[in-house]
Structure formats: C-alpha cells, structure tokens
Amino acid sequence: MILPPPFPPQTYAAVNQGISNITRKAMVLPLLKLGTLALRTACKPIASRLKKEAGLHPRFRTFIISIAQANHRFTTKMQRRIYGHAVDAVIRPLNEEKAVQAAADLLGELFVFTVAGAAIIFEVQRNARSEARKEERRRMELEEMKKKDELLEKEIVLLRQKLAELEHGLRGQGQGQGFAGWFRFRNGDIKAKPA
C-alpha cells in the first residue's frame, strides 16, 4: 500500500496562494486610492453640469428653489438649537439666485456622495462574496481532510488486524520463543549428509 506524501499537494498550493494574496492585497490599496481619486475627479464635471442645467430649466428651477429653501430652514433651525437661540423665530427665505446656487451645490454634492456611496457598497459586496468563496473553499478542504483522516484510520485498523494475525500465526507456529520458534527445528528434521 502506498502512503501519501507528508504534505498533500493542496498544502503547497495554499501556501503559494497565500503569498500571492498578500502581494495582491499590497497592490490593491494604491489602486483603490487611485480609483477613488479618479471617481471623484470624474464626478466633479458631471456635478457642475447638473448645476448649470438646474438653473436653466424653469420647472426644475422652481423645484430646486423649494428644496433649497427647505434645506435653508432646516439648517438654520439646527444651528439655532445647537447655539441655544430661539427656534420659533421667523427665518428669512433666500433670494432666488442664492437659492438656485445653494440647490445646485447641494445637488452636485449629493451626486458625488451617491456615486461614492455606490462604489463603497459595491466594494463591500465584492469583499463579502470573496470571503464567502474563501469560506466555502476552507469548508471543502476541511471535509476533504476529514475524509482522508477517516481513510487513514481505517488503514491503521486494517494494519493492526494484519499485524495481530501475523503475531498470532507466529505464536502458533513457533513452540519456542525467538528465532528458534520461527525455524521449528526438531531432531528428526536434521539429517546428516554423508561426507
């Protein structure tokens, strides 16, 4: 019966994979930072385009003015609460141009924030899938190791049984102990040859 090598080939593959994972992770960090910077840079022109378009269309303009006024009221009330001033005071609305500019800025920042949030969610989901695959691989390797362990235990039991049979057979054959029992020399078995 051929015994397996001291370390299964999967062990060597796992070590090599671990080294490549470390190298890959070391390379991912700068690429991730570069990707984030590129994403922010790409979002800024889109956000400025949204700002321009927001000021030109009449319906959209009235919509964003109402959003800007609501945001202005909310932030002013929050600031008054934080500083301990009266909250029920009348808050003057922004003039139309300031409201459009504030809403356009808010819209641009909201767009950048949404894109960055989507990128983070995508990265988290990708990492979760990767971890799930790794966990599944570990589970399968563990099951394979358990199966090999069970096979080895069965082989050990068989070898012990064969050893016990051999020992029993040797005891039955040999009346004496040691080498004399193996050869079973008797007086009648030895014949002298004529010279």
UniProtKB/TrEMBL annotation:
The keyword Coiled coil applies. Residues 125-162 form a coiled coil. GO terms for biological process: regulation of lipid metabolic process. Keywords: Coiled coil. InterPro entries: OPA3-like. It holds the Pfam family OPA3. It comes from the Eukaryota. One of its GO terms (cellular component) is mitochondrion. This is OPA3-like protein. It comes from Turnera subulata.
